[in-house]
Design brief:
48% of the residues lie in helices and 12% in strands. The chain is globular. The protein has 16 helices and 8 strands. The protein has a single domain, classed as Metal-dependent hydrolases (TIM Barrel), CATH 3.20.20. The chain has 343 residues and is of the alpha/beta class. The strands form 2 sheets. The protein has a 4-stranded parallel sheet with strand order 1-2-3-4. Strands 5-6-7-8 form a 4-stranded parallel sheet. Strand 3, helix 8 and strand 4 form a beta-alpha-beta unit. The structure holds adenine (ADE) and zinc ion.
Length: 343
Protein backbone atom coordinates (compact mmCIF):
# COMPACT_ATOMS: atom_id res chain seq x y z
CA UNK A 1 0.00 0.00 0.00
CA UNK A 2 1.24 3.55 -0.73
CA UNK A 3 0.49 4.43 2.90
CA UNK A 4 3.21 2.10 4.19
CA UNK A 5 6.01 4.59 3.47
CA UNK A 6 4.03 7.28 5.29
CA UNK A 7 3.51 4.98 8.27
CA UNK A 8 7.25 4.29 8.40
CA UNK A 9 8.06 8.01 8.34
CA UNK A 10 5.59 8.96 11.11
CA UNK A 11 7.21 9.59 14.53
CA UNK A 12 5.99 6.66 16.61
CA UNK A 13 5.89 5.76 20.28
CA UNK A 14 5.81 2.19 21.52
CA UNK A 15 4.25 1.48 24.94
CA UNK A 16 3.75 -2.25 24.93
CA UNK A 17 6.97 -4.09 24.28
CA UNK A 18 8.42 -6.65 26.67
CA UNK A 19 12.23 -6.51 26.69
CA UNK A 20 12.39 -10.29 27.14
CA UNK A 21 10.01 -10.63 24.18
CA UNK A 22 12.74 -9.36 21.84
CA UNK A 23 15.02 -12.37 22.51
CA UNK A 24 15.46 -14.06 19.13
CA UNK A 25 15.89 -17.84 18.89
CA UNK A 26 19.45 -17.32 17.62
CA UNK A 27 20.39 -15.11 20.59
CA UNK A 28 18.64 -17.54 22.97
CA UNK A 29 20.86 -20.39 21.76
CA UNK A 30 24.05 -18.32 21.72
CA UNK A 31 23.47 -16.95 25.24
CA UNK A 32 22.62 -20.46 26.50
CA UNK A 33 26.03 -21.57 25.27
CA UNK A 34 27.92 -18.49 26.49
CA UNK A 35 26.29 -18.67 29.94
CA UNK A 36 26.34 -22.51 30.06
CA UNK A 37 22.61 -22.73 30.66
CA UNK A 38 21.09 -26.10 29.71
CA UNK A 39 18.00 -25.89 27.49
CA UNK A 40 15.11 -28.38 27.76
CA UNK A 41 15.63 -31.63 25.86
CA UNK A 42 12.47 -31.58 23.69
CA UNK A 43 12.77 -31.70 19.89
CA UNK A 44 11.69 -28.04 19.67
CA UNK A 45 15.02 -27.14 21.30
CA UNK A 46 17.08 -28.98 18.66
CA UNK A 47 17.90 -25.73 16.85
CA UNK A 48 16.84 -22.08 16.57
CA UNK A 49 14.77 -23.00 13.48
CA UNK A 50 12.95 -25.80 15.33
CA UNK A 51 12.18 -23.44 18.21
CA UNK A 52 10.93 -20.77 15.83
CA UNK A 53 8.60 -23.36 14.25
CA UNK A 54 7.18 -24.15 17.70
CA UNK A 55 6.63 -20.42 18.34
CA UNK A 56 4.51 -20.31 15.17
CA UNK A 57 2.08 -22.78 16.77
CA UNK A 58 1.18 -21.12 20.10
CA UNK A 59 -2.35 -22.06 21.19
CA UNK A 60 -2.91 -19.58 24.06
CA UNK A 61 -1.27 -16.99 26.31
CA UNK A 62 -0.17 -19.67 28.78
CA UNK A 63 1.23 -21.90 26.01
CA UNK A 64 3.36 -18.92 24.91
CA UNK A 65 4.35 -17.96 28.48
CA UNK A 66 5.87 -21.42 29.12
CA UNK A 67 8.37 -20.81 26.28
CA UNK A 68 8.74 -17.14 27.20
CA UNK A 69 10.02 -17.99 30.69
CA UNK A 70 12.40 -20.64 29.33
CA UNK A 71 13.85 -17.76 27.29
CA UNK A 72 14.44 -15.83 30.52
CA UNK A 73 16.77 -18.57 31.78
CA UNK A 74 19.60 -17.63 29.40
CA UNK A 75 19.68 -13.95 30.47
CA UNK A 76 22.26 -13.48 33.22
CA UNK A 77 24.50 -10.45 33.00
CA UNK A 78 24.10 -6.68 32.63
CA UNK A 79 25.76 -7.14 29.24
CA UNK A 80 23.03 -9.61 28.14
CA UNK A 81 20.36 -7.01 28.93
CA UNK A 82 22.40 -4.28 27.26
CA UNK A 83 22.66 -6.35 24.09
CA UNK A 84 18.92 -7.06 24.09
CA UNK A 85 17.98 -3.42 24.73
CA UNK A 86 20.38 -2.00 22.15
CA UNK A 87 19.25 -4.39 19.42
CA UNK A 88 15.61 -3.48 20.01
CA UNK A 89 16.23 0.28 20.21
CA UNK A 90 18.33 0.37 17.06
CA UNK A 91 15.69 -1.58 15.14
CA UNK A 92 12.85 0.52 16.56
CA UNK A 93 14.69 3.76 15.76
CA UNK A 94 15.11 2.61 12.16
CA UNK A 95 11.32 2.17 12.05
CA UNK A 96 10.98 5.75 13.38
CA UNK A 97 10.05 4.89 16.93
CA UNK A 98 11.11 8.04 18.79
CA UNK A 99 10.18 6.92 22.30
CA UNK A 100 9.72 3.46 23.82
CA UNK A 101 8.38 2.39 27.20
CA UNK A 102 9.69 -1.09 27.78
CA UNK A 103 8.23 -3.73 30.09
CA UNK A 104 10.30 -6.28 31.96
CA UNK A 105 9.40 -8.89 34.60
CA UNK A 106 11.66 -8.46 37.66
CA UNK A 107 10.34 -11.58 39.41
CA UNK A 108 11.31 -13.75 36.43
CA UNK A 109 14.92 -12.70 36.98
CA UNK A 110 15.35 -12.19 40.73
CA UNK A 111 13.98 -15.72 41.27
CA UNK A 112 17.06 -16.95 39.34
CA UNK A 113 19.51 -14.78 41.23
CA UNK A 114 19.70 -12.03 38.59
CA UNK A 115 19.43 -8.62 40.23
CA UNK A 116 17.21 -5.76 39.08
CA UNK A 117 20.24 -3.49 39.29
CA UNK A 118 22.06 -5.63 36.66
CA UNK A 119 19.05 -5.31 34.35
CA UNK A 120 18.77 -1.56 34.91
CA UNK A 121 22.52 -1.10 34.42
CA UNK A 122 22.45 -2.94 31.08
CA UNK A 123 19.31 -1.13 29.99
CA UNK A 124 20.69 2.33 30.87
CA UNK A 125 23.96 1.69 29.03
CA UNK A 126 22.07 0.70 25.87
CA UNK A 127 19.51 3.51 26.21
CA UNK A 128 22.27 6.09 26.56
CA UNK A 129 24.10 4.79 23.49
CA UNK A 130 20.88 4.59 21.44
CA UNK A 131 19.87 8.12 22.47
CA UNK A 132 23.21 9.46 21.24
CA UNK A 133 23.24 7.46 18.01
CA UNK A 134 19.56 7.44 17.03
CA UNK A 135 17.90 10.12 19.19
CA UNK A 136 15.40 7.59 20.54
CA UNK A 137 14.38 7.75 24.22
CA UNK A 138 13.48 4.76 26.37
CA UNK A 139 12.02 4.12 29.81
CA UNK A 140 11.48 0.91 31.79
CA UNK A 141 8.23 -0.34 33.33
CA UNK A 142 8.49 -3.35 35.70
CA UNK A 143 5.51 -5.72 35.55
CA UNK A 144 4.32 -7.79 38.47
CA UNK A 145 3.48 -11.39 37.57
CA UNK A 146 -0.05 -12.72 38.00
CA UNK A 147 0.88 -16.40 37.88
CA UNK A 148 2.85 -16.04 41.12
CA UNK A 149 1.38 -15.46 44.62
CA UNK A 150 0.32 -11.88 45.38
CA UNK A 151 2.73 -11.90 48.33
CA UNK A 152 5.56 -12.36 45.80
CA UNK A 153 4.32 -9.30 43.86
CA UNK A 154 4.19 -7.32 47.09
CA UNK A 155 7.75 -8.22 48.07
CA UNK A 156 8.93 -7.36 44.55
CA UNK A 157 7.17 -3.98 44.53
CA UNK A 158 8.49 -3.08 47.98
CA UNK A 159 12.06 -3.95 47.03
CA UNK A 160 11.84 -1.81 43.87
CA UNK A 161 10.58 1.12 45.94
CA UNK A 162 13.25 0.61 48.62
CA UNK A 163 16.00 0.54 45.98
CA UNK A 164 14.80 3.93 44.70
CA UNK A 165 14.03 2.64 41.20
CA UNK A 166 10.86 4.71 40.93
CA UNK A 167 12.59 7.94 42.00
CA UNK A 168 12.64 10.56 39.28
CA UNK A 169 16.26 11.61 39.56
CA UNK A 170 19.38 10.07 41.01
CA UNK A 171 22.65 11.70 41.95
CA UNK A 172 21.80 14.98 40.27
CA UNK A 173 21.92 13.32 36.87
CA UNK A 174 18.87 13.66 34.65
CA UNK A 175 18.38 9.91 34.82
CA UNK A 176 14.69 9.05 35.01
CA UNK A 177 13.58 6.10 37.07
CA UNK A 178 10.94 3.62 36.02
CA UNK A 179 8.05 5.23 34.12
CA UNK A 180 5.43 3.33 36.09
CA UNK A 181 4.26 -0.05 37.34
CA UNK A 182 2.69 -2.80 35.21
CA UNK A 183 0.88 -6.12 35.72
CA UNK A 184 1.08 -9.00 33.26
CA UNK A 185 1.32 -12.79 32.66
CA UNK A 186 -1.59 -15.27 32.98
CA UNK A 187 -4.92 -13.43 32.99
CA UNK A 188 -7.71 -16.02 33.32
CA UNK A 189 -8.68 -16.72 36.96
CA UNK A 190 -6.44 -13.86 38.17
CA UNK A 191 -8.86 -10.98 38.81
CA UNK A 192 -7.19 -7.55 39.11
CA UNK A 193 -8.64 -6.95 42.60
CA UNK A 194 -6.05 -9.35 44.08
CA UNK A 195 -3.38 -6.69 43.37
CA UNK A 196 -5.44 -3.76 44.72
CA UNK A 197 -3.39 -3.16 47.85
CA UNK A 198 -0.12 -3.01 45.90
CA UNK A 199 -1.54 -0.69 43.25
CA UNK A 200 -3.07 1.56 45.94
CA UNK A 201 0.40 1.82 47.50
CA UNK A 202 1.84 2.70 44.08
CA UNK A 203 -0.83 5.37 43.58
CA UNK A 204 -0.11 6.89 47.00
CA UNK A 205 3.57 7.15 46.02
CA UNK A 206 2.71 8.92 42.76
CA UNK A 207 3.72 5.92 40.62
CA UNK A 208 1.86 5.59 37.29
CA UNK A 209 -0.03 2.35 36.72
CA UNK A 210 -0.75 0.22 33.65
CA UNK A 211 -2.40 -3.20 33.56
CA UNK A 212 -2.63 -6.03 31.02
CA UNK A 213 -6.40 -6.65 30.90
CA UNK A 214 -8.99 -7.84 28.42
CA UNK A 215 -6.50 -9.91 26.41
CA UNK A 216 -7.86 -13.38 27.24
CA UNK A 217 -9.83 -12.12 30.23
CA UNK A 218 -13.36 -10.68 30.09
CA UNK A 219 -14.38 -7.03 29.72
CA UNK A 220 -15.13 -6.85 33.45
CA UNK A 221 -11.40 -7.36 34.15
CA UNK A 222 -10.77 -4.14 32.20
CA UNK A 223 -13.38 -2.35 34.33
CA UNK A 224 -11.72 -3.85 37.45
CA UNK A 225 -8.26 -2.70 36.32
CA UNK A 226 -9.65 0.86 36.17
CA UNK A 227 -11.76 0.73 39.35
CA UNK A 228 -9.70 -1.54 41.63
CA UNK A 229 -6.16 -0.78 40.46
CA UNK A 230 -6.48 2.81 39.26
CA UNK A 231 -4.98 1.82 35.90
CA UNK A 232 -4.07 4.87 33.80
CA UNK A 233 -3.42 2.77 30.69
CA UNK A 234 -4.80 -0.62 29.68
CA UNK A 235 -2.53 -3.10 27.88
CA UNK A 236 -4.35 -5.11 25.16
CA UNK A 237 -7.91 -4.27 26.28
CA UNK A 238 -9.45 -5.76 23.16
CA UNK A 239 -12.17 -7.70 25.00
CA UNK A 240 -13.45 -4.39 26.43
CA UNK A 241 -15.30 -4.11 23.12
CA UNK A 242 -17.68 -6.85 24.36
CA UNK A 243 -19.23 -4.43 26.88
CA UNK A 244 -20.47 -0.97 25.85
CA UNK A 245 -20.29 0.31 29.43
CA UNK A 246 -16.60 -0.56 29.64
CA UNK A 247 -15.90 1.07 26.29
CA UNK A 248 -17.71 4.20 27.51
CA UNK A 249 -15.62 4.24 30.66
CA UNK A 250 -12.36 4.00 28.67
CA UNK A 251 -13.49 6.86 26.41
CA UNK A 252 -14.76 9.01 29.28
CA UNK A 253 -11.54 8.59 31.32
CA UNK A 254 -9.35 9.18 28.26
CA UNK A 255 -7.42 5.99 29.01
CA UNK A 256 -4.92 4.92 26.33
CA UNK A 257 -5.29 1.27 25.33
CA UNK A 258 -2.00 -0.24 24.11
CA UNK A 259 -3.25 -2.66 21.47
CA UNK A 260 -1.12 -5.48 19.98
CA UNK A 261 -3.14 -6.88 17.04
CA UNK A 262 -0.42 -9.18 15.65
CA UNK A 263 0.23 -10.64 19.11
CA UNK A 264 -3.52 -11.28 19.44
CA UNK A 265 -3.49 -13.38 16.26
CA UNK A 266 -0.38 -15.33 17.35
CA UNK A 267 -1.89 -16.15 20.77
CA UNK A 268 -5.31 -17.01 19.30
CA UNK A 269 -7.04 -14.08 20.99
CA UNK A 270 -8.27 -13.12 17.49
CA UNK A 271 -8.47 -15.02 14.20
CA UNK A 272 -7.13 -12.09 12.20
CA UNK A 273 -5.90 -8.51 12.61
CA UNK A 274 -9.22 -7.38 11.11
CA UNK A 275 -11.00 -8.87 14.15
CA UNK A 276 -9.29 -6.34 16.45
CA UNK A 277 -11.98 -3.89 17.67
CA UNK A 278 -10.13 -0.81 16.40
CA UNK A 279 -13.19 0.48 14.52
CA UNK A 280 -15.17 0.34 17.77
CA UNK A 281 -12.39 2.26 19.51
CA UNK A 282 -12.34 4.88 16.73
CA UNK A 283 -16.15 5.23 16.66
CA UNK A 284 -16.51 5.44 20.45
CA UNK A 285 -13.52 7.74 21.00
CA UNK A 286 -11.27 5.26 22.82
CA UNK A 287 -7.63 6.27 22.41
CA UNK A 288 -5.15 3.55 21.48
CA UNK A 289 -1.57 2.96 20.42
CA UNK A 290 -0.33 0.08 18.23
CA UNK A 291 2.44 -2.11 19.57
CA UNK A 292 4.42 -5.31 19.01
CA UNK A 293 4.31 -6.96 22.51
CA UNK A 294 6.85 -9.84 22.08
CA UNK A 295 8.02 -9.53 18.47
CA UNK A 296 10.71 -12.24 18.60
CA UNK A 297 8.03 -14.74 19.62
CA UNK A 298 5.44 -13.49 17.14
CA UNK A 299 7.06 -13.97 13.73
CA UNK A 300 9.54 -11.11 14.16
CA UNK A 301 6.79 -8.57 13.54
CA UNK A 302 8.11 -5.32 14.98
CA UNK A 303 6.09 -2.09 15.07
CA UNK A 304 6.29 -1.23 11.38
CA UNK A 305 4.78 -4.61 10.45
CA UNK A 306 2.04 -4.03 13.03
CA UNK A 307 1.16 -0.62 11.56
CA UNK A 308 1.14 -2.05 8.03
CA UNK A 309 -1.02 -5.04 9.04
CA UNK A 310 -3.54 -2.66 10.63
CA UNK A 311 -3.51 -0.40 7.58
CA UNK A 312 -4.22 -3.37 5.34
CA UNK A 313 -7.02 -4.65 7.58
CA UNK A 314 -8.71 -1.30 8.31
CA UNK A 315 -7.72 1.12 5.52
CA UNK A 316 -7.55 4.09 7.90
CA UNK A 317 -7.21 7.52 6.25
CA UNK A 318 -4.15 9.73 6.60
CA UNK A 319 -6.13 11.88 9.06
CA UNK A 320 -7.02 8.83 11.17
CA UNK A 321 -3.38 7.73 11.18
CA UNK A 322 -2.32 11.23 12.26
CA UNK A 323 -4.70 10.94 15.23
CA UNK A 324 -3.47 7.44 16.16
CA UNK A 325 0.14 8.64 16.15
CA UNK A 326 -0.74 11.82 18.09
CA UNK A 327 -2.68 9.88 20.75
CA UNK A 328 0.36 7.62 21.16
CA UNK A 329 2.65 10.61 21.78
CA UNK A 330 0.14 12.26 24.13
CA UNK A 331 -0.37 9.03 26.10
CA UNK A 332 3.36 8.49 26.63
CA UNK A 333 4.93 8.83 30.07
CA UNK A 334 7.93 10.90 29.00
CA UNK A 335 8.21 14.62 29.79
CA UNK A 336 6.06 17.23 28.03
CA UNK A 337 9.29 18.66 26.61
CA UNK A 338 10.13 15.34 25.02
CA UNK A 339 6.59 14.98 23.61
CA UNK A 340 6.90 18.42 21.99
CA UNK A 341 10.13 17.32 20.27
CA UNK A 342 8.56 14.09 19.00
CA UNK A 343 5.45 15.83 17.64
N1 LIG B 1 4.00 -11.12 29.10
C1 LIG B 1 4.60 -11.01 27.91
N2 LIG B 1 3.70 -10.91 26.93
C2 LIG B 1 2.48 -10.96 27.51
C3 LIG B 1 1.14 -10.92 27.05
N3 LIG B 1 0.85 -10.80 25.75
N4 LIG B 1 0.14 -11.01 27.95
C4 LIG B 1 0.41 -11.14 29.26
N5 LIG B 1 1.64 -11.19 29.75
C5 LIG B 1 2.67 -11.09 28.90
ZN1 LIG C 1 2.18 -7.62 26.85
Amino acid sequence: SPLHALLTSMPKCEHHLHLEGTLSCELLFSLAEANTIPLPSGPEFASPAALRARYAAFTSLDDFLAYYYIGFSVLLTASDFEQLTYAYLSRAAHENVRHAEIFFDPQGHTSRGVSVSAIVEGFQAAAKRAAQEFRITALLIPCLLRHLPVADSKACFESLVAAGHFDARKGGEAEPGFAGLGLCSTELSQPPAHWAEIFAAAKSKGIRRTVHAGEEGPARYVAAALADLGAMRIDHGVRAAEDDAVIEKLAEQGVLVTVCPVSNVCLRVAKSVAESPLSVFVDKGVKFSLNSDDPAYFGDHYIQDVYCAVEEAFGFSIEQWAKIVRDAVDGSWCTEERKAVIR
